[in-house]
Amino acid sequence: MKKTLLILFLFTCTLTVNAQSYIGYFQDNYAGVQSVLFNPASIADSRFKTDINLFSISGSVQNDLYGVKLSDVYKDGYDFDTQSKVSPSNANNAVINFDIMGPSFMFNIAPKHTIAVFTRARSVSNLRNINGNLVDQVKDGLDKASNFNFNAGNANGSSNSWGELGISYAAVLYQKDQHFLKGGITAKYLQGGTNGYIQGNNINLSYVENTTNPENGTLNSQGQLTIGTSQDWETNKDYEFDANSRGFGFDFGLVYEWRPDYDKYDLSKAKPADNNFRDLNKYKVRFGLSVTDIGSINYKDAKQDTYNVNGSITQEMIDNADDFYDFLNEHYTKVSTSKGLKTNLPTALHPDVDWNIHNKFYLNLNGDINMVSSGKLNGNGIANRVSLSPRYESRWFSFYLPVTWMEYSGTQVGSGLRVGTFFVGSGSILSNLVSKESKAADFYLGLKIPVYEKKFKDTDEDGVIDKEDSCRKVAGPAENNGCPWPDTDADGVFDKDDACAAVAGPKENKGCPWKDTDGDTLLDNVDACPAVAGPVENKGCPWPDTDGDSVLDKDDACPDVAGLVENKGCPDLDADKDGVSDKEDDCPLIAGPAENKGCPKVTKATLEQLKVEAKSIFFVTGKATLNDAKKGVTSGRLDAIKEILKNYPNAKFAINGHTDNVGNAKANQKLSEARAKAVMDLLIEKGVNPANLTSQGFGSSKPVKSNKTASGRAENRRTEIVYLGNL
C-alpha cells in the first residue's frame, strides 16, 4: 500500500490511451471501414462493394521515462524498477492505447456515394509534465529516499473511456480530367463510460531524511491538487453505468487524387466487363487532410475535489492509509463540487500523402497533430506523430513497413500485413525485437468480410458479362442475352429479322426469295415495273409511245411527233418543197418535178456544160495519168463536174473515154477505158455517189473529127460525160 499511495500522490503511475492505432494499415486502399476512423472521405470511390468488420482491436504503450528490452519483461524474476533504463526529466510522459471496433460495415450506395456505420469502444488518458527525477527518487519508498527538493510544477492527467456509434457519408465532390476530389463527414453518438482527471497547481515537494528512524522521514508539500471523477468513488466503490452521460462528435475529411492517366479510365470507353474501372486505384499521388474527434461527453453525475496539499507526511502515514482518498482526506483540506463536467474528445489533425511508386508499390507519409492544449483540465489529447510507410498492396494481400516518430517514445519501426479477411500488425515490433531500451509497444489485429469491386468475367468477349450471359462460351448480342441469333434457313439473315425464316432469301428482301409479281420473267428486285409486265430489254417495263402514233418510242424516229408507221413514226414531209413528199421524193433535199420523182431533170444546158468541163481534162500522151502541167486546170474542172452531178442524185451518168486512130487499136481501146475509169475514180474521191457513175472506153471507134488533121485528132482525144437516165 505504501508504494501505491506514494505513486498516486506523485502522479508517477497512470494509463494513457490515445486514438493512434492501426499504424500502417489505415492508408491501405483496402483498409475498408477502418479507414473511416482516420479520414471519412477515404471510403468514397473505394475498392469495396461492402466491407464488414467483425472484430478488431488495437493497443499501445509508450513513455519517455522507462526503456526496456521487451523480451525480458515476460521473463520470470524481471524487476521493472531496477532493470529498466530510466531517463528522468522535469516533464516526462507516458501513453497506452486501447481501442476495440465492434460490428461495422461500409457499402457504396451509388457510384459516387458511400456510407459506413461503425461501433467502437475507446479509452483515452493523458499524463503530462511529470517530474521524472522525483519519480526516480521515491520509486522504492520514502524510507529509501535521501534528502531532495523538487518543483513538481503543474502535472496534468486525465482518463476517459466511452462507446461510439458512428455513421459516415462520403462522396465524390469534383472530377475533371486528372483532378479528383472527395469529401466525407462522420457523426458520432457518444455514450460515456468512466472519466477521471488529476491536475497539480504549483506543487513543490521536499524530503528531509531521518537518519535515526528512516521510516519517519518527512515529505513536505505545497500547492493545490484537483481530482475529478465521473461518479463519487468515495461513497460507491462499484461502477454504475449512467445512460445520461452522453455527447456527440464529428469528423471531417477531404482527399484529392492526381490521376495523370485519367484517359485510361474514361467511362465512355468502358466495356461492361470493366465494371467502370471500380476495381482499380487510379491515382499517382493522393493527398488527404482530416480533423477527427470534434466534440465532448457530458458526465452529469461527476464530482470534483480540490485539495490544498500544504503540509507534511511520513512513510508511516502512508502505510497506515487504507486507500488514496482516505489518505488525502485525512491529511489535507478539500473543496468539493458535484455540478457535472464535460470532457473533450482528443481532437486531432491528420495530414496524409500517398505515392503510387509503381504498379502495386506505394509510399505513404502521414501524421497526427494534437489540437488539445496540454494544460487543459480534464483535457484528452494525442501525442504528435509522423509515419513513413512503404507498402505492397493488392486486393487480397498487403504488407507494410512503417517507420514512426512519436512525440514521447522517439523513432520506432514496425510491420504489418493483410491477408484476405485477416489483418495484423504493429508500429514498433521490429524496434522491440532489437532495442534494449524500447519505450513503446503496440499491436493491432482484426477479422473482417471484404466484398471487393472487381472486373467482371466475359469469357466469349461479346460485351455481355458471364453472370448475365446465357451462352458464356459463344459470342452473341446483349439483346439476346449473349447468345447468337439463330438462322434456320442459313441465308445470312437472323430469324429475328427474317420474314421467311424457313426459306432462304436475300437480306435486302428481309430473308425472303424475290417474286415475279407481273409474270414477265423478271424478278421484282430487278424489275423497274414490278406490277406491270414488260420486256426484259426494257427492265420489265412496257415500251412507251409518247406521241401516240402506234410506233413505240424505241422504233419512232420522231417520238415526240405523231407520224406514219411506214415513215418510222414521222409525219409525211416535203423538205425541198417541190410538191413531192419526202417518202416518194428520190431527192428530198433538192426540188424537182413529180414526173421525175421529185428530182431535177438533166437539161441540155447541163449536158453542154458537162461537155465543156470534160474537154479540159488533160492526160499525159499515151497514158491514163493526168498531165501535171495542167493539173490545176484539171482539178478545177473535176470540182465543177462534181458540183453539177450533186444536183442530180437520182441520175445515172457515164464517163466515156475516146482516142484518135494513131497507134494500135487495142492499145487505144485500153487507154480510153483506163482514162474513163481514172476520171470516174477521181470524181468518187471528191464525193460523187459511185451509184451515179459508170465508165466506158471506145478507143478510136467514135471520132467527132477527121483523124487526118492534127486538129481533128486533138478533138477525137476526149473525155465525155453522158446522161444515161434515172437510177
From TrEMBL:
Residue ranges of domain OmpA-like in the record: 606-727
Name of the featured protein: Flagellar motor protein MotB
Cellular component, GO, one term: cell outer membrane
Signal peptide coordinates: 1-19
Major localization class: membrane
UniProt feature, compositional bias: Polar residues: 694-710
Species of provenance: Flavobacterium pectinovorum
Chain segments carrying region Disordered: 694-713
Subcellular location: Cell outer membrane
